[in-house]
Design goal:
- The structure is a single chain.
- By secondary structure, the chain is an alpha+beta fold.
- It has two domains: 33-96, Arc Repressor Mutant, subunit A (Orthogonal Bundle), CATH 1.10.10.10; 101-256, Chorismate lyase-like (Chorismate lyase), CATH 3.40.1410.
- It is 26% helix and 34% strand.
- It has helices at residues 19-23, 33-46, 59-66, 70-82, 111-117, 136-141, 189-196, 213-219, and strands at residues 5-8, 14-17, 86-89, 93-96, 101-104, 122-133, 149-159, 162-171, 201-210, 226-236, 239-249, 253-256.
- The strands form four sheets. Strands 6-7-8-11-10-9 form a six-stranded antiparallel sheet.
- A hairpin with a 2-residue loop joins strand 10 and strand 11 (239-249).
- Helix 2 crosses helix 4 (70-82) and helix 3 packs across helix 4.
- The model is unreliable at 1-26 (pLDDT under 50).
Length: 261
């Protein structure tokens, strides 16, 4: 919609200024140089020009190529290293990492963002979304009574159209009453819950498992394929929000983190 700004004069005439007119005078800002370097590296990896374990140009070489300071080049390389796209070896250089999706144990991230950071495409299929009675385990985990019910969602996440994670989540109905009205093919449960009940605390339990046959079928893997399973409880300031079981094929997914002391 075109916005009209009115300027009144003594003869009550009105001058109309449209956004289209003012927009022509504003030059688009140039992206920061380090993001241009990051895109250059990601494009080479995504196109297959740089395969796994390929040595990437040094910080000095990148600085010279893009006419920037070494500090700018270092920031680009460091951020991609923290995202798991690159790996550094002391004295040897920086290399393209094994191209698996990576999740951090040190922070809770949206899987859609994790996949996007790799330059890949995330999509999701909502398999189940309903209210269920709690069993003893879920009642304890969500601090509920056995007579209460919870919301249950089951979502299959894809990376470049390949199944990457099965998310099974139990949600406290009193803290997120509109959970069943959402479409989790369009927004991830994590993204929605972060808006409705901002997270203040979480616990992780990580285990290598062989998934049940029906889960293997959804993930398009054989029953002998090891999987990485994360069980995660999250809290808001008002109590336990959800308990999630996240199952991923071990040959496509990894956990990582970056600590600074």
């Amino acid at each position: 919609m075109t916005q009209l700004l009115k300027i009144n004069s003594k003869n009550n005439s009105t001058k109309k200024i449209t956004k289209e007119n003012t927009r022509q005078k504003v030059k688009p800002a140039n992206p920061p140089k380090f993001t241009i370097i990051k895109k250059h590296i990601c494009d080479n990896i995504e196109s297959g020009q740089w395969q796994q374990h390929t040595k990437v140009p040094s910080e000095n070489e990148l600085a010279l190529q893009f006419n920037v300071s070494r500090m700018t080049a270092r920031r680009a390389v460091q951020e991609l290293t923290e995202q798991g796209l690159l790996i550094r070896s002391q004295g040897a250089g920086t290399f393209v990492a094994t191209l698996k999706s990576q999740s951090s144990l040190l922070e809770i991230r949206n899987i859609a963002d994790e996949i996007s950071d790799l330059g890949h495409t995330h999509s999701a299929m909502q398999l189940q979304l309903k209210s269920v009675a709690v069993n003893e385990e879920i009642a304890i985990l969500l601090d509920l009574k056995l007579t209460e019910s919870v919301f249950y969602s089951e979502v299959l996440h894809f990376e470049n159209n390949e199944p990457i994670q099965l998310e099974q989540r139990y949600v406290n109905t009193s803290l997120v009453p509109d959970y069943l009205q959402q479409n989790f093919a369009e927004i991830t449960p994590h993204e929605y819950l972060s808006c409705e009940a901002p997270l203040t605390e979480a616990t992780h339990e990580v285990e290598a498992i062989l998934a049940p046959a029906n889960n293997c079928k959804l993930l398009a893997i054989s029953e002998s394929t090891p999987c990485l399973q994360i069980k995660r409880r999250t809290w808001s300031s008002q109590g336990v929000v959800s308990f999630a079981i996240l199952t991923s094929p071990g040959n496509k997914y990894r956990l990582g983190g970056h600590l600074v002391f």
